[in-house]
Known about the structure:
The structure holds 3 protein chains of 3 kinds. Chain A has one domain (about 1-285): Orthogonal Bundle (MetI-like fold). Helices cover about 75% and strands about 0% of the residues of chain A. Chain A contains 10 helices and no strands. In chain A, about 50% of the residues are buried. The mean pLDDT of chain A is about 85. Chain B has 15 helices and 2 strands. Chain B has a two-stranded antiparallel sheet with strand order 1-2. In chain B, a hairpin with a 4-residue loop joins strand 1 and strand 2 (about 90). In chain C, helix 5 packs across helix 7 (about 185-200) and helix 7 runs parallel beside helix 8 (about 215-230). The radius of gyration of chain C is 22 Å and the shape is globular. The longest helix of chain C has 18 residues, at about 215-230. Among the domains of chain C are: about 80-200, P-loop containing nucleotide triphosphate hydrolases (Rossmann fold), CATH 3.40.50; about 270-345, no CATH class. Chain C is an alpha/beta fold. Classes of the chains: A mainly alpha, B mainly alpha, C alpha/beta. At the A-B interface, helix 4, helix 5, helix 8, helix 9 and helix 10 of A face helix 1, helix 7, helix 8, helix 12 and helix 13 of B.
Amino acid sequence: xxxxxxxxxxxxxxxxxxxxxxxxxxxxxxxxxxxxxxxxxxxxxxxxxxxxxxxxxxxxxxxxxxxxxxxxxxxxxxxxxxxxxxxxxxxxxxxxxxxxxxxxxxxxxxxxxxxxxxxxxxxxxxxxxxxxxxxxxxxxxxxxxxxxxxxxxxxxxxxxxxxxxxxxxxxxxxxxxxxxxxxxxxxxxxxxxxxxxxxxxxxxxxxxxxxxxxxxxxxxxxxxxxxxxxxxxxxxxxxxxxxxxxxxxxxxxxxxxxxxxxxxxxxxxxxxxxxxxxxxxxxx
Amino acid sequence: xxxxxxxxxxxxxxxxxxxxxxxxxxxxxxxxxxxxxxxxxxxxxxxxxxxxxxxxxxxxxxxxxxxxxxxxxxxxxxxxxxxxxxxxxxxxxxxxxxxxxxxxxxxxxxxxxxxxxxxxxxxxxxxxxxxxxxxxxxxxxxxxxxxxxxxxxxxxxxxxxxxxxxxxxxxxxxxxxxxxxxxxxxxxxxxxxxxxxxxxxxxxxxxxxxxxxxxxxxxxxxxxxxxxxxxxxxxxxxxxxxxxxxxxxxxxxxxxxxxxxxxxxxxxxxxxxxxxxxxxxxxxxxxxxxxxxxxxxxxxxxxxxxxxxxxxxxxxxxxxxxxxxxxxxxxxxxxxxxx
Amino acid sequence: xxxxxxxxxxxxxxxxxxxxxxxxxxxxxxxxxxxxxxxxxxxxxxxxxxxxxxxxxxxxxxxxxxxxxxxxxxxxxxxxxxxxxxxxxxxxxxxxxxxxxxxxxxxxxxxxxxxxxxxxxxxxxxxxxxxxxxxxxxxxxxxxxxxxxxxxxxxxxxxxxxxxxxxxxxxxxxxxxxxxxxxxxxxxxxxxxxxxxxxxxxxxxxxxxxxxxxxxxxxxxxxxxxxxxxxxxxxxxxxxxxxxxxxxxxxxxxxxxxxxxxxxxxxxxxxxxxxxxxxxxxxxxxxxxxxxxxxxxxxxxxxxxxxxxxxxxxxxxxxxxxxxxxxxxxxxxxxxxxxxxxxxxxxx
Lengths: 284, 339, 348
């Protein structure tokens, strides 16, 4: 256990950028978890209650993110909005990782018609722009945050399948897999213990970089109106809600947007650092 | 000879994928609860029962699924895309009105992205580790981490309000009528007809949206090209070329850059997809009457014929873009077509 | 007329690596005369490739050198980029081990040969006038059989075809159209030799040019190279790990070990009377066809870690003649018999 922790710490503090990334990601996750569990209790103000202060106040000491059109505190709203993005992105990534990883490993290892079918299916997904497909699915299912999560998850797994497949192809020809087969291990066992596990690091690095992308996709779709409605606190929704005040009170739509950028950059830096750290490990 | 068969195979593969997309939209359209006619015609199904009846007959909407599928595909091949309730016109018409607008915008933005990306990519490679390189990394990080609405909003704030130089929306100045549709592409049409005020206004209204799309994505081109160039410059055949006395300038272009072209083409294909996505937001924010805005409209108003129609058109264009990329690959790298 | 074409004086080459400094070449000095064929022999890591790269200034960015290299009496260490561009190819040329990775993969072979000629044109012209080479290479060979419409003009460069013929390529017109990945290793290496020599260098560095080829092709290429020395007035510095190769073609052989020159002499002298224990051991490793059931000899151990500074003789670990004095201090290179040097306490 201790060894794993050390390994983790070493990877995560690979260089200065990675540390910054990790800090941002950790802050994001921690906020989401705490806010998710304790709810509005930890917030300075109730994110939905109106007129806790004068509306349209620019950022100040009392209200670091200012207040909005109906006097709600923006800081509380932004913090409250963390959970949505965090949960959606985690759910989507886990789903895509598991489904895509398994299907892809199987296709790459077994080959044959399973492989062909998987390739054709992923081809179809790759040809429709993700946003459009998500819009179609969520329209069919009905706009809600759950349906939006489903929609994004459905379009998210094909790249993982492809990645897992190519990893499986690469690994399957390796010697240790041959010896596992020769020693009579059954197929599911080989698949899990050897192939999937060996493919994991590559998939994990990709997933880390990818969480940020889910946040972008989700907040974009939320902005367009496919998630919850105002005044629910959600970053994408808030940008749309306050867009009309862009000229006169720019902090209102821009602060949530900038928070999104920061979180995504955090994931990018962390993912890049992990990738570099693992490459160095392999290179040795 | 190798080239033609190569392309033919790719075209056939593309056709199959499109069939898959058609199948997908068909399946999705049948997941929607309710009477199919209402879905396809919206409220007009009730107000115009005769039209509804015609529809039922044409698409065999009361017959088993596989029959419906056949007539659906048949209809598509005859360019029958249905009626779009949110627009009050046939889907095909809505698409032919909005598609050229988007194509112009996307084309302009891709050109901008490519030029900006190549220039800053080469600069970042030459000045590796120094300021231009660091700046380009920053642009890349910010561009790829921005939600699709951020850069357009910032541009609107900066260049239409703070420094009011450009219009904040619309295809063209309201007072200037659009040139008559010859090719359907308003830019070309205005040039052909010689309507320069229309042309000027069109360009003026295109700058910010195109810029918004390019700024978000050119950072990726920069980084990929940079790392590709650097990698090639350290490779064996570059070393051997230096050993023959070939000047660095020439190596940079003929060897490093040209060998990076394959990667560049792949990247541009990805950026095309990325741009189509960002285009929906840009068209929304700039009130640009293109396919993206229409697609959004159909989704928000549950206009299924329009929605599925636009999906198909999008897929068609992605397949076409992939084919174009395949052609470019073959031109740039002889290994690809001669295998 | 310079007696010494190339003179390397006290050359040290170091590489920076994450694990420390790698001492690749230590205090190497050597001379090369015009038209001389010298083989530099050693196992992997001996520093022979590094030596060749250092001469042409082609070390990777993490490499640094101290010492001097003179070509035709002029110092060439630390030349600037433009000076190198003028110098490389036309004065000293180089061919590498993997011919496939020595050419631009996306252009055809003929175009690249023409490019090399084009880029160095003025210097080649100056040189050929100086040395008055065979006018035959300037003769127009008449129209080739190729379709005139589709070929870019450069490929029909007759000089390219002429040079390909010189390296015994029987069908140069079609070879010229091919891309690197379409040619065999042996063919590619001939092309590389043709390309290198077409620039009329006085010295050709060859870094293990035959290692990637099968034995028959290897023999052909070596024979070709030897022949061209005479024809083109070119000296050759051949880097190889194979003593047999050196025996076949070289006039002189220099044996390197762990970055040091440990023996240097005429091929006949070194092979009949190897002075250094390492050379002796290497020669013993070669199977002698006479005795059928003799056990193949091997040389135990490995080369020392190049990151460490080692006191005394680097070969001491593996040497059968080792004495205490060997490890005490740096062993000097001594002329044991005429023009035959060795770095060993045996000959002090």
